[in-house]
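We close this part of the discussion by returning to an individual protein. Part of our work consisted of pairing the sequence of a single chain with a tokenised description of its backbone. No coordinates are needed to read the tokens, only the vocabulary itself. The amino acid sequence and the backbone structure tokens for this protein are reproduced below:
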Amino acid sequence: MKIAFTINGKTLDAPISDHFDTNQDILVVKISDMSTEEINITTDLTVEELAQKVIDMNCEGIITGNFLSEKAFDLLADGCVTRYLGSGYSGLEAIELMAKRTLPLIRNFEGTEGCSGDHH
């Protein structure tokens, strides 16, 4: 299983970004062996293109902050990428919480607990 992290650093010790749209780095972690790949973020890359890169890397989930771009949220949701709210935690803490099933899901663009449409 691959999980993407919007993270403010180059390692899983760094904190998760507060927003998907303003993150500094994206790490993709293969959970089985904890190997990492980085998605290179360039200034000309839109948040929608960034969301598509996460999908193209076959990530099953993303641990991030809230979304500012509804289109980026919809791309990930429609791509069957589970969205987890990890802001306030390091990448390693978020992995532990996800494994315990206590890391909150981002169920809709507004970031509330309710479901809207097909985006669960």
Remarks:
- The chain has three helices and five strands.
- The domain at 2-99 is CATH 3.30.420.130 (Nucleotidyltransferase; domain 5).
